[in-house]
Design goal:
Number of helices: 2
Helix content: 10-25%
Largest sheet: 8 strands, mixed, barrel
Structural class: alpha+beta
Strand content: 25-35%
CATH topology of one domain: Sortase, Chain: A
CATH architecture of one domain: Beta Barrel
Distance between the termini: 146 Å
CATH class of one domain: Mainly Beta
Strand order of the largest sheet: 1-2-3-4-9-10-8-7
Order of helices and strands: HEEEEEEEEHEE
Length: 222
């Protein structure tokens, strides 16, 4: 009776071991079946955008300085005095004295000085107040010109520029501001003068009317 009991226990143990093996194999099968056999590719790295600094902008070249528009004056108009006078270029003589047109209705201008519209220097113009045999000159009433009055210069090609009086004075001829009137540098101005006062024993007038004017408009007609 004892031997059959032993065989029965052995058989039960074997059966239990077989059952465990079946379960283990089933779990392994499930795990194997659940694995993805295809390797997953890693995502491609996003290309980095260029981060180099932009090239510095090339500075614009400085504009070339423009030469001032100038012209040779041929006529002067002084509206406040009702004057229209032709102008003649004058150069110094052998004694370095500027000539003056004999006809007092004509004006002289210093050709070696500044031209109308220049950016510096003095434009010098002048004329007789009277002259024997000709009568009164274009500048006979120059002493009456006031600050703020206009003086207009014209060229033979239709050029035009306006100057505005900024100062008027009467001085002795020995006190004429020659260095300023002959200046080729400094602020651009128009200096206009004529004789003033009664003639002395020598027949000459010792005073001068001196008018200074500054450019009040751009040169037109060029």
């Amino acid at each position: 009776m004892t031997a059959p009991r032993t065989r029965t226990r052995t058989g039960a143990v074997a059966a239990a071991a077989a059952a465990v093996l079946v379960v283990v194999l089933a779990v392994v099968a499930v795990l194997v079946a659940s694995e993805d056999q295809t390797p997953v590719a890693a995502p491609a790295p996003t290309p980095r955008e260029a981060t180099s600094s932009p090239a510095p902008a090339t500075p614009e070249p400085a504009p070339e300085p423009r030469a001032p528009v100038t012209f040779r004056p041929t006529t002067m108009k002084i509206p406040a005095l009702g004057v229209t006078a032709p102008m003649d270029p004058e150069v110094p003589d052998a004694n370095n004295v500027l000539g003056v047109p004999s006809d007092p209705k004509r004006l002289g201008w210093r050709e070696a000085g500044a031209l109308p519209g220049a950016d510096q220097g003095t434009l010098l113009a002048y004329g007789h107040v009277v002259n024997r045999g000709y009568g009164r000159g274009a500048l006979y009433y120059l002493r009456e010109l006031a600050v703020g009055d206009d003086i207009v210069l014209l060229g033979d090609q239709g050029e035009r520029v306006t100057y505005r009086v900024v100062k008027s004075s009467i001085v002795h001829k020995a006190d004429m501001p020659a260095s300023e009137m002959l200046a080729l540098d400094g602020p651009h101005r128009l200096a206009l003068y004529t004789c003033e006062g009664a003639p002395d024993a020598t027949g000459h007038r010792q005073q001068r009317v001196v008018v200074w004017a500054e450019q009040a408009s751009a040169v037109e007609g060029v």
